[in-house]
Amino acid sequence: MTMLAEGRPTQQKANLIMPDQNSITTHTGNRALMVDEPLIFEIGSPDRSGVDLPEAPQVASRLGGLERETPIAIPGLSEGEMVRHYTRLSRQNYAIDVGLFPLGSCTMKHNPRLNEKMARLKGFADIHPLQPVDSVQGALGVINELAVWLIKLTGMHGVAMTPKAGAHGELCGILCIRAALEARGDAREVILVPESAHGTNPATAAFAGYKVEDIPANAAGRVDLEALKARLGPDVAGVMITNPNTCGLFEPDMKAISDAVHAAGGYVYCDGANFNAIVGKVRPGDLGIDAMHINLHKTFSTPHGGGGPGSGPVVLSEALAPYGPLPFTERHADGHITLVEEETVEDRHPHTFGRMSAFHGQMGMFTRALTYILSHGADGLKQVAEDAVLNANYILRSLEDVLDAPFAHSGPCMHEALFSDKGFTNDLSTLDLAKGMIDEGYHPMTMYFPLVVHGAMLVEPTETESKAAIDQFIGAFRSVAERAKAGDETLKSAPYFAPRRRLDETRAARKPILVWTEDEDFAQAAE
Amino acid sequence: MRYLPLTPEDRQSMLATIGAQSVDDLFVDVPEQARLNGPIEGLPMHAGEMAVEAHMKALAKKNHAAGDMPFFLGAGAYRHHVPASVDHIIQRGEFLTAYTPYQPEIAQGTLQTLFEFQTQVARLFGVDVANASMYDGSTACWEAITMAQRITKRSKAILSSGLHPHYVSVARTMARFTKDNLSYQVPTLDAATDGQNMLDQIDDETSCVVVQYPDILGRIGDLSAIAEKAHQHKALLIAVVTEPVALGAIKSPGEMDADIVVGEGQSLGVGLQFGGPYVGLFGCKQKYVRQMPGRLCGETVDAEGKRGFVLTLSTREQHIRREKATSNICTNSGLCALAFTAHMTLLGEKGLRELAMLNHKKAVQAADRLSSIKGVSLLNDSFFNEFTLVLDTDSRPIVRQLADQRILAGVSLGRLYPQEQPLANGLLVAVTETSTDGEVEQFATALEGALS
């Protein structure tokens, strides 16, 4: 057997698996390193603690008669038990540190550890958001420096740093649009959202009190420009567009779209989730965009953490910048940086729409993103976009003979390649291919998204994968796709080798068990 | 370029497979006039690890780190000791670099952790269920208000004067969208709370009453009467907890019949980090679970009948319901939730109660010492680990003066309520287990000096 650079076998031979493996049992039910870990409520005790605290001073308490009398019923573990518990749990997780993570539109790239080290410098990690501004000039410097990079890379006028995630950034951008329209006494009530948008786009517009109308995609997977133009009018506040879009394609008519929206008195919001495909190559400001959030984790490698925290700064055009949220930094000629917040906003910033989170945003993420940006520099970031796009096109062209690729005919993709389940037989679906990939040792690609393609599979390798790693992935993907086309029904029960087999999601939703209770709720669920 | 593995030869060979001459051929959809061909003006080129580290360290050095000097700031962000093992666990790559657990078979580590987190939060708050975390306390507070609006189909929200003013600002910002009618008055420096005033405002138009516990001035009030009055009018009581350690010492909001309890979980495991990322806590009574925003992890079984965990009730969420979703949120604060739950697991009930009493009693000692200073009085009869000193002068210049002497005194109410001149005499002081007697004494001496 030959080995690739990564050290994995090039071919998985079915006959390597012992046929009677499933019939072998162990006393514990565990299998070597595959260990089932009980819940803390099953192993801990309210009387046990992994923390040694000094004794409290002998003074009378002053809790106003509200002393807690009932048990909290939170178990404790010793430090060793705690470390073992979470370490064992961690081994049941796939992560980018474990292998290629081809989630389209989610962008799972290597997370440099220098970023983590810098975020933990006590001068960043151990400072309070309300310290006097003179005592946090370095932290304000990080925010300011990152802001400058984001503005220059996007060719925009200003940036709102406080949004705490991409969807929060969308809300920020829509608020800026609303505030700008209100300032000119123009109460528009419709936001247009193309079909291919992330689900957060329509949800954000609706949450913001707007009516949401769809704009169809054309046969090439792009926004239908004529349909968009036909819908524009005095009731349209703006459009929310994703570029590169969620089919992995650049919107070639972007400038024409912006011009048409502006001519009709509206604003253009761009979902910048996929900025990693064009960073250093295209400035969104040159395309007429008014507001765009940047998911720092996607383009600038802050870790995903199993679901956050995110960070979604929003770059703003000259028209929208005055409306951005508090607080923000201002750098003065002498290098001193001030923080503009309620106390200091005064008359110079009368249009700000106010505050959208308690403090200054995701400072810990800014530190990581700036570290990554400085490591790459302007030249490296351009290479990031080029390699991400190169890798995705390599996957697209290497698999289009075996998998349907709905938009491959219309040219190259950007940072992600889109396939569909067309041609699968015996009712096999995208889900089955995904679960088959788990047995091959991969996290599956994004499934059933974008919605405009039936059985969609969106694959994004990112720029941090080597050619060897991608070749191996292509081999695995091809193999499982061929099985799906041949109608291999064993895929319907995959995965076979994961810590858990297919989990019953319907049962979880029908009778939700969201907290652990003393009386064996598991038995209840299993009924 | 140390993170980029492709060699020039790799690139050439891949381009050949694709059938392209150069990488620019892959950007054909970008109109020529929008392409950047040269470097962007004013931005530096790539740098090695040593150079970047030196740059970042120089920036970090310009900050006064809390641990380097006497430190007494709170107001929604608290400095507690984070055990070393907590940071070790969250730096494990399998947690740190994992994605949202959409493929549950290979994400049981994250999912089981979230299930344990949800249970801990629900028990701490005294409610039936909790979600898998939100961005932070302030945004969770706003989501709770919109949730109450969905449940009651009413739009009047009464915000207590004791609610953190930044949380009020967030609600005001967002109310521009929803046209919610927010009723709010700033606090005063009278010892008496404004509870009666708030009770009087509750009527049949009210969707919710939002009360912070302990409140922004450090006061602890019984919520039972407010809950009762709210429920008489079919309105909901939302309790906001910005210092969860307090709940190791005082009654939970759920015990006083709060319907929704939200909070900021930064105190446990997360650290100050200049304001973020933090972790929003969100719990409620069982009957409202399908109106709850954010992610939820639920228990189920796999194909072999083994217990396992999945994200659930996603039919409320944006990726299914799009514009009809309960919220546009599509993330949680996963890694911070892990830090919170790991710290909580180390503490256990015993440790949390001890930590809470240690905080409280140190605060009692400090309050007595500081209020003995001439020109200083103590606003609160009762408090947890934070209290308000009333000075005979504006506290803002005092705070700046003490910072110059490398003492980070409390938060001036003048910074939190810049439009309310009388409040500027208030100084909010937080004392945790990290403050030593010597530091309290240093603070007291400096304050005496500044006031004399």
Report the sheet-strand fraction of chain A.
5-15%
Note poorly predicted spans of chain A: 522-527
Quaternary structure classification: heterodimer
Overall pLDDT level of chain A: 93
Q: Taking strands numbered 1, 2, ... along the chain, how are they ordered across the largest sheet of chain B?
A: 1-7-6-5-4-2-3
How large is the radius of gyration of chain A?
26 Å
Structural class of the helices, strands and pairings of chain A? Answer: alpha/beta
Main sheet characteristics of chain A: 7 strands, mixed
Q: What would the principal axes of the Cα set say about the shape of chain B?
A: globular
Structural class of the secondary structure composition of chain B?
A: alpha/beta
Description:
The complex is a heterodimer of chains A (527) and B (452). Chain A has 527 residues and is α/β, with parallel strands linked by helices. Helix content of chain A is 32%, strand content 9%. Chain A has 15 helices and 12 strands. In chain A, the strands form 3 sheets. Chain A has a 7-stranded mixed β-sheet, sandwiched between helices. In chain A, a hairpin with a 5-residue loop joins β8 (328-331) and β9. The two termini of chain A are 46 Å apart. In chain A, 57% of the residues are buried. Residues 522-527 of chain A have low confidence and may be disordered. Chain B is α/β, with parallel strands linked by helices and 452 residues long. Chain B is 38% helix and 13% strand. In chain B, β2 (156-159), α7 (165-178) and β3 (181-184) form a beta-alpha-beta unit. Chain B starts with 7 loop residues before the first helix and ends with a helix. The chains are: A alpha/beta (527), B alpha/beta (452). At the A-B interface, α2, α3, α4, α5 and α6 of A face α1, α2, α3, α4 and α5 of B.
